């Protein structure tokens, strides 16, 4: 009897593992042209690795993007403390900090919408969040200045894009 129970538990665990891996692989195939690191990002996230359906994957990938936001914002805030910053960096960087707050609100809205089953609204909120790193980088281009946070904005864009990709599949 113990053997049968142990086997059943092992089988269920294995099934969940395979389901999450399939969700990761299939979702990333659909977004591979946009993000070649998709699998890598999701496999680093324990919540993604345990997802058993698209809804859980949207939640996991949205939380993954949400966890990146404070890191990017803190880097921007730290750079702003430099008293010798040129206006071409200072002004767009200030805007970026505000944009990151907006993105945080949009990602929180996404989680709320997904939990309510309002998937179109979740897609809209993720689309709004996806604009943030792009708008941030565009601010530096307006000043013909190299962004000191382009690498971080790129990662943020990738993470939000992954969440959006799964949300579109859910809708």
TrEMBL record:
Residue limits of the Pectinesterase inhibitor domain?
19-166
List the InterPro entries hit by this protein, alphabetically: Invertase/methylesterase_inhib, Pectinesterase_inhib_dom, Pla_a_1-like
Key word RNA-binding present: no
Q: Does the keyword section mention Disulfide bond?
A: yes
**Could you tell me the keywords of this UniProt record?**
Disulfide bond, Signal
In terms of Gene3D superfamilies, this protein maps to:
Invertase/pectin methylesterase inhibitor family protein
Question: Family per UniProt?
Answer: Belongs to the PMEI family.
What is the protein name stated in its UniProt record? Pectinesterase inhibitor domain-containing protein
Naturally occurring in which organism (per UniProt) = Brassica carinata (Ethiopian mustard)
